Amino acid sequence: MANLLRDKSTGMHPGRRLSKSKASRVARPVTPLRVLVIGAGVGGIAVARGLLQDGHDVTVFERMPEVRTGGGAVTIWSNGATVLRQLGVDMDGAGEQLSTVRVVTSGGRPIATIDVTAISATLGAPTRMVPRRVLLERLLAGFPTDRIQCGSPAVRVLETPEGARVEFADGSAVDGDLVIGADGRHSMVREMFGAQAAEPTGWCSWQGLISLPEVADNHDATIIIGEHGNLGLWPAGGSQLQWWFDLPWSTDFVRPDRPIEMVRAQFSGWSEATDRVLATLTDADLDLSPFPHYRHPIPREWGQGPFTLLGDAAHTIPPTLAQGTNQALLDAMILRRALTSAEDLSRALRGYEKMRRRKVAIVSWLTSLQVSHAESALRPAALIPDRFMTWILATFLRAISHRDHLAGFAPA
Hints:
There is one protein chain. This protein is an alpha/beta fold. The chain has two domains: about 1-70 and about 135-195 and about 295-370, FAD/NAD(P)-binding domain (3-Layer(bba) Sandwich), CATH 3.50.50.60; about 75-130 and about 200-295, D-Amino Acid Oxidase, Chain A, domain 2 (2-Layer Sandwich), CATH 3.30.9. Helix content is about 35%, strand content about 25%. It contains 15 helices and 18 strands. The protein has helices at about 20-25, 40-55, 80-85, 115-125, 130-140, 190, 215, 260-265, 270-280, 310-315, 325-340, 345-365, 375-380, 385-400, 405; strands at about 35-40, 55-60, 75, 95, 100-105, 110-115, 130, 150, 155-160, 165-170, 175, 180, 200-210, 220-225, 230-235, 240-250, 290-295, 305-310. Strands 6-5-14-15-16-13-17 form a seven-stranded mixed β-sheet. It has a five-stranded parallel β-sheet with strand order 8-2-1-12-18. The longest helix has 23 residues, at about 345-365. The radius of gyration is 22 Å and the shape is globular. About 50% of the residues are buried.
């Protein structure tokens, strides 16, 4: 229904792409900007927090009646940890600080042992496994609650002569200079300017958090790779353990009545810790699963005029390298930097998108390479020294992290 509406001031259909000439007319002083953020997830709160620190007038709109997050835990690599530190977010004691990631085959053959402590020392920030709920709580600590309007589902965005407008399901509207769509894979803002939808990769995760002290109370994470699936057991603080089981998935997938039996049949015997987890899990622990993996085609620009996207709204990526949350945090910081120094708003937004696209395209491509292989195909990887594997991962994280640009921000 929204696509049948037309903005009387511009004559623009909400789903039609803005012309180059119209986009180029969006120019105004950058301080202070009236910023409207759609979505109160990790990315939305992160960018709002940073822009508030820079003196902008920021309001976050969340469709749910309260700010909350689902899912289990997320990996905050050194690149994401650096952004959180610059935002003034205290992560001490949150989740579990990791020291090692061990990768083995389902038959127990070692593939690699990644020295995460060495990576953290090289990049200047620790790596943590943190429950998503805890991460959001830390981001919200000290955040002015009156800047978040919950129960406000946005249904349309449009350009006006003065900037941008967001319209809501109850018929109300609000005007601003800039709209940031941080509203996830099904982003309403993304749909408004006709960007491509995310595509399934053919894999899914059955995942969650459980309390299992005998497995979780350490600093070592485990990945086990098999011929037709893979799994992860990562400590997430105290007795909490983040578990996932990745299996092929298609759009015609039919959920079994007893999914835990299906998962046990596939992964039992892979390791002693795996069997403990499988013995503890019930069908109720799999209620929210599976989570299909999706990937957005990365466009040259993911915004138009006074509109841009952030996080999963711009570039949903599979969880293979645990970079989704970290890339959203990097979006927030690079967008903040672009708005700090720019005089032309539209040019600043397109510059942010161009800068992020180069990095995100690399991450998107690599995360789309499914790592399940026959053990015989993995034997060459086991010949690579662990020190070199650690160096490869550290180099990758450095390459996708905008370290030269982020260095310009002092911690809040």
